[in-house]
Write a sequence for this structure.
């Protein structure tokens, strides 16, 4: 778990660095929440991981939605903001502040920690770009 926390901290720094945007000082604040765990049966082939966020003082334009996953010793950018594998991953906006990541052709190799990020890139506020704590996805074999 210590290596996961170290990787997550490194990703958060990279996330902040990548998305840091210039602009006027503002008060945009984003909070992201995700379920801590999602366990699925071996017979499930498609799963939806949920992510909810709230934003106060931010622009009315929609934010960028990003998804990452942590495997044992590395992280992968899945949708930053576009998904790298459109057959495997798809982002859905189910309501104004609810996002989900659809994972198709689910196997035990997809067991990982999935992290949702929300970014109002036009904002210079340090709280305008946030990630959730991650959802641990476990598919039983």
């Amino acid at each position: 778990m210590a290596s996961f926390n170290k990787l997550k901290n490194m990703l958060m720094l990279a996330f902040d660095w990548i998305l840091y945007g210039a602009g006027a000082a503002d008060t945009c604040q984003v909070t992201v929440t995700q379920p801590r765990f999602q366990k699925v049966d071996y017979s499930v082939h498609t799963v939806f991981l949920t992510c909810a966020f709230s934003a106060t003082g931010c622009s009315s334009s929609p934010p960028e939605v990003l998804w990452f996953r942590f495997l044992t010793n590395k992280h992968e950018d899945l949708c930053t903001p576009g998904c790298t594998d459109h057959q495997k991953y798809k982002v859905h906006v189910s309501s104004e502040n609810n996002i989900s990541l659809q994972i198709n052709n689910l196997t035990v190799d997809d067991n990982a920690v999935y992290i949702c990020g929300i970014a109002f890139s036009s904002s210079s506020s340090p709280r305008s770009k946030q990630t959730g704590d991650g959802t641990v996805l476990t598919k039983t074999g």
